[in-house]
Write a structure and sequence with these properties.
With 130 residues, the protein is an all-alpha fold. The longest helix has 33 residues. The N terminus is likely disordered.
Amino acid sequence: MTAISATAEDRPLGRAMRRGFFGRCPACGRGRLMQGYLRVRDRCPECGAVYSHHRADDGPAYLTILIVGHLMAPLIMWAFVKYRPDPVTLATVFAVGCIALSLALLPRLKGMIVGIQWAKRMHGFGDDTE
């Protein structure tokens, strides 16, 4: 069994994911990745990296649902057993929590997925001719 050696062409996945999560360009880390709430810029304003060919699609939404569901479901069970609140109060509090957490996570997870695509050279990110 031989070890696969890293080449100069490899892009660091962890750093690209982290930069994307925080809304920064996965390539340089300085430019803003997002143009609005969920719209990815066509190019990085700092280094000129092209992002127009990203394909995040439904991935961020699926990850958001997965994370919010896994965080909120145990909390709802715990709050119901420990405090026995009125069902309307419980539903209201956790609906607001789910919406707030979803709105906070969605653009960050989209940036992270764009960072993964950039690091793995997916969907045209490996083409350095642009």
